Amino acid sequence: MNIQRVPPVVLAPVYAAQALGLILRAERLPEADGPREGSAGQGERLRLLVLGDSSAAGVGVAHQDDALIGQILRHMTPFARIDWRVIARSGVTTRVARSNLQGQGQFDVAVLALGVNDVLRHTSAAQFFTAQTGLMQDLHRNHGVGCILASAVPPLGAFPAFPEPLRTHLGRRATRLDRIVQQVCASENATHVGFDLPPSPDLLARDGFHPGAALYTHWGARMAGLALRVLS
After folding, report:
1. Which residues contact residue 181 at a Cβ distance below 8 angstroms, ignoring those fewer than 6 apart?
2. E strands present in 1-138
3. In degrees rounded to 5, what are phi and psi of residue 71?
4. What is the pTM (predicted TM-score) of this model?
5. For residue 16, what is the DSSP state?
6. How far is the C-alpha of 102 from the C-alpha of 142, rounded, in Å?
7. For 38-231, which CATH superfamily applies?
8. What are 113's strand-pairing partners?
9. What is the pLDDT along the chain (232 residues), one digit of tens a residue?
10. How many Cβ atoms are within 10 Å of 97's Cβ, its own excluded?
């Protein structure tokens, strides 16, 4: 049977059963230990926000030093004084992240890691567009952010943790929502940062889903390089 040609409604019970089985079997990794805000480095001051879901919270590694924020700081602090904050929690959608941002102060650069939970919770395309647009507008207008770096929605269709046909279904949804992120970035003066590495097991945590140390290293270095352009 060609899964691509089967209407999603026909396979909905299969997707639901596989998702439930995955939830029951999957190892629940904790968020990384360590501070969620601080100051480091020397030189010109730059206020940095990392906003997102479990990947922004460092799930997959033991400490924030090895997570996304730690890797960003490793590459930025030789060139600037970074006042940084992580606002992240496992399971949040874009809409919830936008709510979590309220009252959080002013920043120069915002790194976003969102979209996976919108895929898993079947956020509609229209709802996702509205949430992404509202979030980026809030960052610019209410929080002074001049540089938004929006991570791509990961290609869930390539993640080994998901069985078929669920993997293909989630992959299609992830691709569709990532196109929306690209569209919103183009209209809201933000930068879409693509997922440019295959999600191979050696880059992922032991659950086969969250980033491992190697992926955080690559991701953090890339985001740091883009963020440092603000100083030039």
Report:
1. 115, 132, 150, 152, 153, 192
2. 37-40, 45-52, 81-88, 109-113
3. -75, -35
4. 0.90
5. H
6. 9
7. SGNH hydrolase (3.40.50.1110)
8. 52
9. 444 555 555 455 544 445 444 543 545 899 999 999 999 999 999 999 999 999 999 999 999 999 999 999 999 999 999 999 999 999 999 999 999 999 999 999 999 999 999 999 999 999 999 999 999 999 999 999 999 999 999 999 888 778 888 888 899 999 999 999 999 999 999 999 998 877 788 899 998 889 999 999 999 999 999 999 988 7
10. 24
* φ, ψ of residue 58 in degrees (nearest 5): 85, 15
Tokens read off for 155: 């290609």
Sheet with 147-151: list strands edge to edge: 37-40, 81-88, 45-52, 109-113, 147-151, 191-193
